[in-house]
Amino acid sequence: MKIFHSKQIPEIDAYTIKNEPVASIDLMERASLKLCEWLIERYHQEQSFKIFVGPGNNGGDGLALARLLSEANFQVEVYLVKITRHLSADCQMNLDRLKIQNSSSISEISSLVDLPIFSKGTIVIDALFGSGLSRPLDDLVKDIVKTINDADVEVISIDIPSGLFGEDNSSNDLNNCVHADYTLSFEFPKLSFLFPENAECVGIWETLPIGLHPAVIEEMESPYQLIDENYIRSLLKTRLRFSHKGTYGHGLLISGSYGKMGAAILASKACLRSGIGLLSTHIPRLGYDILQTAVPESMVSIDRSDIIFTEYPNLENFDAIGIGPGIDIKCNSIRALEELLEECDKPLVLDADALNIIGANQEMKKYLPKGTILTPHIKEFERLFGECKGPFDRNEKQRNFSKKQSVVMVLKGAFTAITDENGRCYFNPTGNPGMATAGSGDVLTGIILSLLAQGYSSLHAALVGVFIHGLAGDLAADEYGEDALIASDIISFLPQAWKRIKS
Ligand SMILES: NC(=O)C1=CN([C@@H]2O[C@H](COP(=O)(O)OP(=O)(O)OC[C@H]3O[C@@H](n4cnc5c(N)ncnc54)[C@H](O)[C@@H]3O)[C@@H](O)[C@H]2O)[C@@H](O)CC1
Ligand SMILES: Nc1ncnc2c1ncn2[C@@H]1O[C@H](COP(=O)(O)OP(=O)(O)O)[C@@H](O)[C@H]1O
Ligand SMILES: [K+]
């Protein structure tokens, strides 16, 4: 699913209105019907709604919704926030229709004293501002928003929490934006919903289809998209009847150090559970027995050091290389990584301490071979690129670096963002908070290495790897719950995850 900039939404609307064709007031009615259906499915008629309405089309949606909920016998009170005398045409039309219906109360709010008492159990619908917001909220609206946020009520925002911008909120104080429990957005999510910093405002978000014209959605360009299972399926390779282990590549995983051999075990197992033909795991000497016992399917390449990574085997023997989980950041490891980056012409994935080493030795960035995959979490990202002004700025930096250096970057977290050499950004929907646990990143590195060795392009290895990793985590959470989930469980559910997307 493409994710469009708020400025593109009116163009998509206008195209739909002209070419479907449909009157703009009827498109608003369609959107409000979807909102009403969503609410009717979840709430019963004893619950009352307080709808806060602004002057634009977001307010228009709120007014149309008030009429539809009243028609369905819900108790509705409407609060029209008077910040301007002028309402948008469709907002005015829906206000007139609501007045004609004459079944809900309509009050005007021109100062805080006009605000109602919020009794417990009330549901607040936030239809103050939508994607047309062009500057932070003015004082009156800010105070109304604060009062709503402080009240012990459930809040549902229409399209976007009022006060929040669809993209960049770096100059915005999130305390002045509605903190919704649910955000119901039309057709597409906004970019800002995918950033962890905005979660307190957005709550749980859903998209409601409102029949925007498919031709304009297809044609209009956007660098952002949310991937889904069908898209991932379209990228998968099939295993051949007459194939042998050589067909699926030989991977080299450089991982582990004294006290961190678990990282090497997790990454190796995940790699082998994702279809690779042969795996060699390069580890310091002390890890020999540990790895041979824990992962008998992997061959072992031994470093001359007992405790850290200081050298690597001949790269010619391998189809892809993964380096980082648990390698530590000692001086000899830095030198070895530097050499590897300069020499390596094989597909490469860098994670964890490999990224921290580069973060501490910035000149190494320029040696990253084209097509390399980097998999930082936010902290590792900031070690690489410095502090960011906010999530939008971070995403811009990620896209720009991918483009400039022709590398694939995987910024991990909820809605992991994957950027490619064209500056495109793909967000991943799978995964859950249970995966915020030691070692889950190591599992991802193993999966991605496996896919690189099997001949997937860097971008496809990152996309498929991140999706399947999150899917296995979701299946594991279904079985064990999020709290008990450990990284090994993600590996245990890789077989089910692969079966599901290969079926
Ligand atoms: N395709 C879609 O997504 C559809 C969207 N619709 C609704 O239309 C909304 C967008 O409507 P609008 O473009 O009218 O935008 P808004 O309803 O967000 O209102 C913007 C209006 O407020 C003014 N304004 C902006 N920032 C302000 C501020 N800080 N203080 C005071 N005034 C401010 C603007 O000049 C403009 O007049 C969407 O969010 C959605 O709710 C639906 O009605 C139909 C289809
Ligand atoms: N709240 C969450 N929702 C979805 N996925 C998550 C969440 N928290 C963590 N993950 C996933 O778990 C993995 C954690 O990786 P990382 O932070 O490197 O862990 P570690 O260093 O312990 O291996 C990433 O792939 C990330 O996307
Ligand atoms: K809103």
From TrEMBL:
Binding site for K(+): N58, D126, S162
Positions of AMP binding: K412, G413, A414, F415, T416, G441
Keywords associated with the record: ATP-binding, Isomerase, Lyase, Metal-binding, Multifunctional enzyme, NAD, NADP, Nucleotide-binding, Potassium
GO MF annotation list: ADP-dependent NAD(P)H-hydrate dehydratase activity; ATP binding; metal ion binding; NAD(P)HX epimerase activity
YjeF C-terminal domain mapped to chain residues: 228-501
The reaction(s) this protein catalyses: (6S)-NADPHX + ADP = AMP + phosphate + NADPH + H(+); (6R)-NADPHX = (6S)-NADPHX; (6S)-NADHX + ADP = AMP + phosphate + NADH + H(+); (6R)-NADHX = (6S)-NADHX
Domain YjeF N-terminal: 9-218
Binding site residues for (6S)-NADPHX: 57-61, 130-136, 159, 263, 326, 377, 442
Cofactor: K(+); Mg(2+)
Domain of life: Bacteria
InterPro entries: Carbohydrate_kinase_pred_CS, CARKD, Nnr, Ribokinase-like, YjeF_N_dom, YjeF_N_dom_sf
Stated family: Belongs to the NnrD/CARKD family. In the C-terminal section; belongs to the NnrD/CARKD family.
Function: Bifunctional enzyme that catalyzes the epimerization of the S- and R-forms of NAD(P)HX and the dehydration of the S-form of NAD(P)HX at the expense of ADP, which is converted to AMP. This allows the repair of both epimers of NAD(P)HX, a damaged form of NAD(P)H that is a result of enzymatic or heat-dependent hydration. Catalyzes the dehydration of the S-form of NAD(P)HX at the expense of ADP, which is converted to AMP. Together with NAD(P)HX epimerase, which catalyzes the epimerization of the S- and R-forms, the enzyme allows the repair of both epimers of NAD(P)HX, a damaged form of NAD(P)H that is a result of enzymatic or heat-dependent hydration.
Official protein name in the record: Bifunctional NAD(P)H-hydrate repair enzyme
